[in-house]
Each structure stands twice: as structure tokens, then as C-alpha cells.
Amino acid sequence: MQEAIKADPTFTDAHLKLGQLYEFTRRQEMALAAYREAIRLQPDKPATASAYQSASMILLRQARYAEAIPYLERFAAFFAPQSAQGQRIQRQLESARFGQEAIQHPQPVTPIPLSESLKTTPSQYFPVLTADEQTLVYTVLKPEGDEDLMISSMKGEVWSPPISLSDNINTPENEGTPSLSADGRTLVFTACQGRRGFGSCDLYISRKTGDTWSAPQNLGPAINTRYWESQPSLSADGRRLYFVSDRPGGQGRRDIWRSDLNASGEWVEPVNLGVPVNTPFNEASPFIHANGRTLFFASDGHIGLGGYDLFVADSLTKGWSAPANLGYPINNADDQAALFVAANGTRAYYSFEEQKEGVSQKSRLYVFDMPESLRDRVKPVSYLKGVIADAHTKKPLVATVELIDLSNNQVVTRVTSDEQTGQYTAVLPSGGEYALYVTVPGYLFKSLSFDYTQKTRGEGMSLSVPLEPIASGKGSTAKETLNNIFFESGRFELESKSKTELDRLADFLKSNPAVKVEIAGHTDDEGSAATNLELSKKRAQSVVNFLTKAGIEPTRIQATGYGETRPLAPNSSDENRRMNRRIEWRVL
């Protein structure tokens, strides 16, 4: 081609062919020069259309959006606007204009690499963390081509040297794209060879008891098909699963799907997220935030800066919001995927793929502080963690921990504590009033109250829960406070949001038909002692009345008022007075 151009510098076809050869040998700038020369020689000939296309593609890959736009506009003139090629060029023009604007208004983010100790292999990617950000699991690519799952723990302020997640999970074949529940005890990952499955890639689940991961189980035919399933994302409590599949019935090629665990512990038939999240093109690497409503994902179908960009959408009452591009420099002209945002919404983790002349070299794990514009999108989540044990023997207990939204009596989170250690982690979203219940058969349930209607920041709290065994008869000390019973000041009528707690107590009594209880009302010291005594009696009686209407025999429950005579704390502050205004229940 070079010899032909020497013989005839106006030989347009030779310039085109030379550009293609330079592209093939990855000499992008020389290819661009050749295409530009072909365009200069014959700017309006249909044969030159491929030069406009190739030159614009090189410029788009290099994020030279302003240079690409004129070539795309000239290229578009060769096609009818409604033709498939005309529409494709319009999409590229939209991306170029979006990219040009995004670079001029960058997000204030400064990604920094995670610890050097994590770089034990050529590439690391798909990071996921527990709610407390103390445990990190990610995929590594070894020199021999094997993918494994690695785990690292935060020691002080540094990540420990990573180790294999488990010999029960990692094999000589590939394991990757993990997802963890908030407590780090449920894992879903992808495997494509070496295990019995339904298709090209399947999803598998493993659960951790103590320090041991169970043998992975295929998620079954509802989730896995003969098509491609990968890139899972578990909800914080492990009861909802998002994943990517190219199965029929979607919007395009690879779509995001969702499934829930039913009461029997089985995954139900997945549903496609539909528009506006999914497109006729490809969606990838969904991540559902611990708040259960903010979805981050990658797509090459929504307008972005080129290739796969990262987007965010919110689950609303009427469906998903329109996805928003996370902007530059989180997104650039290369492919982006696998973003993980911390429960408190302040940090994000992802993998950045270093490229040389368009070829991936290696991938590294990075973290950055979420910019305010994105942090405002993510409703922060707090978390509770601790140990659940017998109040007397200190033996760890397998407990069910449920978080209930008091506005609608719906379960927000349901987790169980570890069988060997009694440890649990539960997330508490902002923006509502919640009741937290800890239940174990044979024990009084523990109720806790959290008013997060004004909560704007996520935080971690340690809360170990001692449970009282059911013990009746003389000398019984088994009692608990009903922390989600609500009255207006000075009144004894139950507020409607008390129903959640009262239903719990009624269910407990129905499940334990031999148990009799005292419902005890207590007040602070504001007002006269006689008034407080009468108020405490009436409040206790209101609870008893509810229980009898719920079908509990009146002979099993008695109301007692103690007024201000049994304070839990000195009535010296508003907080102490709140503690002293309470309803207790005691096994008789």
C-alpha cells in the first residue's frame, strides 16, 4: 500500500487499506492519519464512508470526542436517518456529545489503589465487602489463567495479605464474580466449568458456619438455564438476588434479572427488570446497595462515554427510575464494571483495567470517596452486629433477627445468627421507624426500637443480645420491655404503629399456650404519683385488651400498673425518662 501511494498519492483506496492495516497492527495514530488523507482526497464519495467510520471509532476509543463529532456527522449523511446504520451513528453522536460534556464537568473523585498486599496476581477485580467494610472478597486471575476467590480482612487500617476463600469453593477451574450478604455468611458466585450445571455459566451458593464454608450448591433450574447466568448481587439479608442472563424473554442481549427466596427457602422464577434499566444491548455487573433500593450496574446500551459505563437507578413505588450515568472520571472511554458502594454510602470500590494500545494489561482494585452528587442518591444504611446468646449460660444461639417497618408492618431484613458463634449482622436503612425482633424457640423475644426518620448518615453499632429462656413459676425473672408500644403523651390509647409489637406478643403466646404473663405499665416522675399510677394501669390494660381481642385467653394475661415506682434510671434527663416510660411483660 505504501508503494502504491508513492506511485499515486491520490490513490484513495490505498489510503483506506493502509489505515486498516495500521489498525490491525495497533498503530492507531498512523491509521488515523491514513483515514484522514482518504477523507481529504474524496470527502463526499460513498467509498470514503468507511474512513469516516473508522476515524471516528479510533477517536471515540481515545476519548477525543470533539474531534470525533465532525466525522460522525459527515458519516451520518451517507445514510437515511431511520435506517439501522443511521440510528447507530446517531447513538454514537449522542455518546460523543455526552462524553465531551462529561469531561468538561468531572466528578470530584480521586481513586486510590487498595493495599499493595492485595496484588498477589496479575489481575484483581469484582470486589465485594461486608456491611462493616472489615472483610473483602474478590476475584483474581492467576498467570496460568485460573480464576479464584480471595479474602482479606481489615487489620487496623490495612488489608491483610489475601488467602484463598475456601478449598471447598476454589478449584483448578474458574470461580469468579462473587456476591456477599451483609454479614459475610452467604456467598453466591459464578462457575463455568468443572461443576455439574445447566448451561455455559451457572450461579452457585455457599454458606458459612463458624469459619467453614459449605460445599457450593447450584442455585437450581429457576435461576440457572442452558443460557449464560453470571454476575450475581445479593441483597443485604441474602433473600433477593440480582444477576445477568442472556436467556430469552428479556429486552436485549444480556439483561439484569431478579429472584426472591420464598418461605420454603427456594428461589422463585426470576423476573426481568425491564425498561428503563435493561436495553436492547448489554447490561452487566448489577450491584444492589445495602439499602435495597439503589441499583448500580454497567451497560453499553445507555448513553455514556464509550464501551460499558456505570449507571445508577432507584427502585420506586412505580418501578425503576431512569438510570443516571455516574459521570467522568468514574466512567471513561474504556469499559467500566463491578462497582461496590459501602453500606454508609461514603466510599465506592471498583476495579480499573489498565490498557495499552487497546489491549487489557492488568486490573487493580481501587477505592474512592463518593462525591456529594452521588452520595445524595444513596440512602445510607446503618448496621448492628453482635452476639446472641442465652442470658444465663452464655451459650450462642441460632436466632432469627427481623427488622420491621412500623409504617406498613413489612419485613425489611431477615437474617439468622451463626450456629457456632451466635454472631449476626443486620442492616437498618435510614428514613423510617423500625422494630427489630430477635427470636429463638424457648426464649422470650427481644424487641428494639429505631427511629431513623431523620437519619442522614450510616453508622455501625455493636449490640450483643442476651435472651431470657421461658421459665415460669415462683422465682421466675424472665421479662422483657416492649420497645415498640406507642402512646401519645399522657394518654393510654395505643397508636396504630404499636400493632406490629402486639401481634408479635400475641403470636408468642399462641405458640406457648402454657405461658401466663403480666403486662406491666411504668411511667417517669412528671406529674403526680397518683396520676402516673392510674396512667400506667390504663396503658397496661390497653395492651391486655388488644391481646384478648387477638384470641388470647384473659386468664393468661394480667395488667398491672407501677406508675413511677420502678424506674430503670434516674429521671434526670429526657433520655432517662423515655427509658422509664415503658411496658414490660413478665412470665408468671
UniProtKB/TrEMBL annotation:
Keywords: Cell outer membrane, Membrane, TPR repeat
TPR repeats: 12-45
OmpA-like domain sequence ranges: 474-588
Localization: Cell outer membrane
Keyword Membrane: yes
Domain of life: Bacteria
UniProt cross-references to InterPro entries, sorted A to Z: 6-blade_b-propeller_TolB-like, Bact_OuterMem_StrucFunc, CarboxyPept-like_regulatory, OMP_bac, OmpA-like, OmpA-like_sf, TPR-like_helical_dom_sf, TPR_rpt
Main subcellular location of this protein, as a coarse class: membrane
Official protein name in the record: OmpA-like domain-containing protein
Organism, as annotated: Nibrella saemangeumensis
